[in-house]
Amino acid sequence: MLLLAVALTAVACSSDEAPADSSADTEPVVAPPEIDDKPTPSASPFADRSTDELFDPSTLHTFEFTVAESDLQFLDSDPTAEEYVPATMTFEGETIEVGLRYKGSIGAFVGCVDGPNLFDPSGAKSCTKLSMKVKINWNDGDDEFFGVRKLQLHSMNLDPSQLRERVGYHLLREMGVAAPRSTHARVVVNGEFVGLFTLTENIDGRFTRANFNDGTGNLYKEVWPFTASGTLTGETVYLDSLRTNEGDEGVNASLIRSFAEELLASDDPASVVRQYMDVEQLMSQLAVDRTIRHDDGPFHWYCDDGTVARCGNHNFFFYEDPSAGSITMIPWDLDNAFSNILGNGNPVTPIPDGLGDITADCEVFTHGGFGLTQRSASCDPLFAAWASMEDDYLAAVQRLHEGPLRADRLDPLIDAWIAQITAATVEAAETHADALDPRDWDMAQTEFRRALDYARYFPIGG
Predict the structure, then answer these.
(1) The pairing of beta strand 182-189 with beta strand 61-66
(2) How far apart are CA 292 and CA 367, in angstroms?
(3) Pair 91, 46: CB distance under 8 Å
(4) Which of 88, 175, 268, 351 could be a cystine partner for 284, CB 3.0 to 4.6 Å?
């Protein structure tokens, strides 16, 4: 049943923002704050502290939220509305004012809301944990918390290993990929321990400034340079997906559109890729993606109604560095990764193709336990260009296997992370009837390690 639930999280994978879980980073209508006479706390106690402290892998932070009962009832009545309410957050004995909401795509709400339609979640909250987003600059000021203005706390409800995001992003970053940091955290709401979450770095303007020489450029969420038919994606689609520079005068998508136009017109598309993209970083990302089977990511082209025109992928960002004139793909949402390494354990997400493989002559085909329709990624002009760079890809696979994937490098970290979160996992099970059973967690850890060992012995593309 757990694998079924994991699978269902990806179905719509394809239906948000054609397709995407775009709501994770949009700013919806805000519930009006309650007015009182209390002084407004400030984020200043944490403003000058580093994000390295916030995402310190050796520390299990605790975030305590206090929410008015009426506001909590408002949140719980319809989590899928993803509307902020006012709250306070206490951290290391200091309290600041924040905005708080639930977040996620369809999968995040599987089994956690009581509406009748699994694929169109609605209704009241029906489980203890739901992923949450915290807005630090609640009063629209410049307040920061360890250098960030938003926190993402992911519930891991569909990851019984409680390891996927943390291990996946670690491998990506160790390979030199611009990827978010992820660690674990405890969450308390109104004095009650809710459970263990992953604290995953938000991809926004602060992230681009920290990871690129010129971080002032455009960041796009889940918009691909080409349509499913192989034509150029329109300007308005890019602008609607902006996560930086939204509404700025003169903002345009000319850089990424020029990249796509040149690639489509070139007799040597790989040379265009080399002109615009950091090939070593790109291939490192592809090597990790395929090794951990991030099958709910950009490789998976879901086809909503079984036609090519309705095919699309998700769980990625693109960033334009305006000074370098470069394009970078950024990975996102690894909660379904690792589940298909030992076989197609997830009936929704698995894809049959490696980089460069094409099934059904670029027509839509069915695959996976649910027989859902998809299309081969390499039918897309950009993926086809990447696939032609086989030597670069195989070199990246070799770097991964000789480096961060090695058992003597990765396994001790996993041991330490498991030890770090054991007490919180047990505490959650003792507190909430729907929490992860430690016995199930132990079995999931074993399965996770088996998957890693398999990936080490059978390298993708090796």
Answers:
(1) parallel
(2) 19
(3) yes
(4) 175
